[in-house]
Amino acid sequence: MAAQLYSIIISVLLLLVPLLSLRLLSLLPAYNPRPAPGTRKPNSKTRLLIVLGSGGHTAEMFALLRDLDCSKYTHRSYVVSSGDAFSMGKAKEFEAMLLKKVMESPKHSILRYGSYDVSVVPRARRIHQSLLSTPLTSLKCLLACFTILYGSPANQFISENEKAGIPKANGPTYPDLIVSNGPATGVIVILASFILRFIAAPGTKRKMRTIYVESWARVRSLSLSGKILLRVVDRFIVQWESIIPVTGGRGEYYGALV
User: Quick one: angle between helices 184-198 and 134-149, nearest 10?
Assistant: First the structure.
């Protein structure tokens, strides 16, 4: 009986391993990805999820987003780590700037502004945190990210939006696009999105495409986040041509973006 059970388990594993491997390979991006034509309808509602990190990461991210068209990215979701008041404040300032730009444009309309929310997740890893305790805090962050990826979390600034006449977002659930530029939280968010796509969670088809932008400070080597996400994200963008050789053909260079 034991030998028969053992044989069944081995047979199941031999069947599952190739199937899971094929599923994984189907999700991993091409070495030289290009936008797939016709995957989204023109003028469709788009939920953009932006991962912010403390200090330099946040400053670089908003430099990258300075020309963001909020009429195209109709709902912006910002993810910040617990205790990061700096990034929380910068998100609020950036949205105020977008609103002002819309209202000062010749064809201003509050509907062109769209909406936004800011969500707080536990820190994946604190500065100088022991490596032994990092897996536990990363797991807490991962579980929180699953919740944030599905639907629009409670907006900490919703009352201010309502006062300004900004409608509440009823749009997409899972984000259409996730952008990160290196914080540890960004790695966890992208990992969570990859897991949801791997298990084919309902509603994830053609959702949660990912863009990683390597820091401007990285001239010849990748950051730890970049090394982890190099083979996972859909688009891997670098800001120095000298770093392309270490990306194994995955890096896309468009000049300095910040």
Answer: 60
Residue listed under structure tokens 């490596």: 131
User: Residue 108: inside a domain, yes or no?
Assistant: yes
What pLDDT, in 10s, does the model give residues 75-109? 899 999 998 999 999 999 999 999 888 888 776 66
User: What total of structural domains would you count in the chain?
Assistant: 1
Backbone angles phi, psi at 163, to 5 degrees: -60, -35
Range of the domain at 246: 43-253
Q: Confirm whether 68 is domain-assigned.
A: yes
Is residue 155 within 8 A of residue 116, CB to CB? The reply is: yes
Q: What is the pLDDT of residue 51?
A: 96
CA-based nearest residue to 123, from 137, 133, 112, 111: 137
SS3 118: strand
pTM: 0.81
